[in-house]
Amino acid sequence: MATDKFRCSILLLNALIAFLLLITSFPVFAGSSGTRPGLSPRTATDYIHAVIQADRRVYSHDIVARLSKLGVIKATENWEQDNTLLLPAQFLLKSAELSNERGIGMRYYLTSLWPINKKNSPKSENEITGLQEISRNPKEPFTWIVKEGNRWFYQAIYPDIATSESCVTCHNNHPKSPKKSFRVGDVMGGILINLPLGKQEKHAELGKHQFPPEIISDYVHSILASDREIYSKYIVDRLKNQNIIQASENWWADKTLPLPAQFLLNASQLVEKRKLGIHFRLISLWPINPQNGPANEFEHTGLETVETHPIRPYIGISKIGKKTYFKAVYPDFAVTQGCVNCHNAYPGSPKKDFKLNDVMGGITVSLVMK
Ligand code: HEC
Ligand code: HEC
């Protein structure tokens, strides 16, 4: 029932995206003539945060809370010894570590004024102020710019809210928790996003800076790819190899884990609902689900291009009415043997000879410029 609803809304969502893309063309942006459209720092961190938060929500809600309530599997701090799920915070921290280690410029992490793990304490006066401010006003992120060495950074902290009883119960009862009085709805900490602005003094003019959309799109993709890799490696493959739990297409009814593709789709739906101007989706030239084929010429060419040249995404800019869209297709790699085995054996899969590290398809990211 719930799966039907899920499928139905996915179909609608795909139809909508396909329609939007059909009425558009995506000429690749041609070099340096004119001023290049950009994104304000606040739009940039709003997009980045939306993706971090959606993945965090899918993991803690659709996976941890659901499977724990069903009595199937729990999340525990010592997940490795216990053969359990990672805690939601551990999932985010692991994925952030993977993304941060790429050295791409943007960094993000969880922080709190009442951390169970002291490593998650605020790292500066600004972070302390930021955490205090978002506790007072959780509707808005708190943002600032700061100079470290001779470089400027734009930093934004977004509230991390106790969305379920399980957040509260676990933290209040944890022996290392400095705070024992959390309630559902409370701000428990924050997600900090740190964007490099560069060396020039003029960057200090808050709000004047414009980020090239391809950079923000790369940051967004880094988060999606990291969460996807951590989910596949540490949840799907690890627990399957230990015969504990599988991922299956009818995960809701089967009381199993969502497929990696469904993890991304669920997150994409959550972000879609917020109507922020950011969209992402998984596509392929060899889709198991025909809905995931390329929706237009741009996506088709993009998939062919990143399969041949996976070093960089295929990008384009277009206008629909008054809105300017940036769009990119990134290669989606077979990061684990699990990706390969499942696709090669899946009934109806049009391709049966995927190998580890092959480009299996693409992740599209589309950003409205503002
Ligand atoms: C089963 C226990 C458990 C549950 C459920 C849980 N947490 Fe945590 N949380 C922890 C532990 C343990 C850490 C420390 C992880 C680490 O860094 O080693 C942590 C870390 C955090 C942090 C970083 C600061 C700190 O305390 O170290 C935040 C913020 C946080 N959790 C918020 C939440 C929210 C919001 C939820 C619900 C969506 C949640 N937690 C669910 C146990 C839990
Ligand atoms: C347990 C089986 C399973 C595993 C593991 C799995 N997939 Fe899939 N994958 C599927 C199924 C089934 C779909 C179609 C989902 C849908 O209905 O939209 C899919 C969808 C996709 C798509 C969209 C195109 C299509 O085939 O519909 C891509 C790209 C993809 N997977 C890549 C990967 C990668 C990369 C990994 C590893 C990180 C992976 N898959 C792991 C079963 C799996």
Helix content: 40-55%
* Ligand inventory: heme C
- Shape label: globular
Instruction: Specify the structural class.
Output: alpha+beta
Report, as a whole number of angstroms, the end-to-end distance: 39 Å
Provide a concise account of the structure shown:
The protein is an alpha+beta fold and 370 residues long.
Report on the architecture of this protein.
The protein is α+β, with helices and mostly antiparallel strands. The protein folds into two domains: about 40-215, no CATH class; about 275-370, no CATH class. The protein contains eleven helices and eight strands. Helix 2 (about 40-70) packs parallel to helix 7. The longest helix has 29 residues, at about 40-70. It is globular. The model is unreliable at about 1-5 and about 20-35 (pLDDT under 50). One heme C binds near residues 60, 75, 88 and 115.
Please render the helix and strand layout as text.
Elements: H1 2-22, H2 41-69, H3 79-82, H4 88-101, E1 107-111, H5 125-136, E2 142-148, E3 151-161, H6 165-173, E4 187-198, H7 213-241, H8 251-254, H9 260-273, E5 278-283, H10 297-308, E6 314-320, E7 323-333, H11 337-345, E8 359-368
Antiparallel strand pairs: 1-4, 2-3, 3-4, 5-8, 6-7, 7-8
This protein binds heme C (2 copies).
Residues 60, 75, 77, 87-90, 93, 110, 112, 115-117, 120, 160, 162-164, 166-167, 170-171, 174, 188-189 line the site of one heme C.
